[in-house]
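Late entry, evening session. Most of the bench is empty. Finally got around to the prediction I had been postponing all week. Sequence below, unchanged from the version circulated by S.P.
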Amino acid sequence: MKIACVGGGPAGLYFSILMKRQDPSHDITVHERNPAGSTYGWGVTYWAELLDKLREKDPETALAISENSVTWNRGVAHVRDRTTVQPGDRGFGIGRRRLLELLAERARDLGVRVAYEDGITADDLPDADLVVAGDGVNSTVRERHADRFGSDITLGRNAYIWLGTSKVHDAFTFSFQETDHGWIWAYAYPFSDEQSTCVIECSPRTLSGLGLDRLGEGDGLALLEKIFAGILDGHPLLGRAQDDGTAQWLNFRTLTNRAWHHGNVVLLGDAAHTTHYSIGAGTTLALEDAICLAESLGAHPDTEAALTAYEGRRKSELLRLQSAARHSAQWYENIQRYIDLPPEQMFALLGQRHSPLLPYVPPQLYYRLDRAAGRLEALRRLKRWLGPRLARSSQARALADADRM
């Protein structure tokens, strides 16, 4: 096949890698409108489950990504002057720029052409058997057939800003701080031995009350450094990683599409769907899209059948995560409901924010029910672990008695 990938993000690059591994004779070009090394964003997160999938599909890529990642296995929450620490699953962070460098290098090694400063317009699509639109939430390719794809965008209520910092955190860190104009909070996690990502969020009322929607970048960062001094330890907050403008306060856009393919055009990653950043799944979902699309094309000789299978499978797999992301965003939009709980309870419900039941149950009652359920589950796990061992021990004694007899 002749394949054109529009957008040089993780989804398009990884898809090109998988297709070249599937069949080296594929003619694949990745068209990226920005210069090489130019990317907005700091670090991205992923979890061990994704790394296992990458090892299965292309061990070389998985090794390069893991070697350039940092890890953590606990969460820390600061609420006013109180701190709670909880163990958690092992998480990974990697710089977005470094991730793209690794994927582009692997793609080129396999024979993919990666063309930078090569913008594709909606009216001038590449001549190819398959056009893969991985050009983000503002996809120009998707907009060419907007009526066919049936795009819908919903704006989140809260405002957020995506920053970096030279403070290297050793855990996934939350900081909730009360101001005269309401609560403001940060999510921070490391992505290298030198820097961390720091996403800051607040309600529109707090944003306006603090003047953050009117301050220039320098004054705004200085104010945020003062508010979050407790987790920055004297380190600065950093705006854009590239000289392409200033960091901006935004409202998250949740994108869905009624259809993911039309003719020879198929959507991938953020061009097809977005999930709220508070569940940390954007990059993982983009790479999983790439895996699914490559598998479908390998399994179905007919391209239309392959695209239909890809769309159906990914839509189904995304339902649970999209629901979790929606409830996670709503938890933060209703933070006043939880913020005055005792620290251990508040952090526990922070971990349960994906639950569709939580908004309808009084928080302290939900916490008690969750603890009780946790104890029951612990007993069930103990039973599953202990049962086979007791059975083997009993069998061994019976055999020993038979030998003596």
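Two things to note before I forget:
The chain has a mean pLDDT of 90.
The longest strand covers residues 151-165.
Will write this up properly tomorrow.
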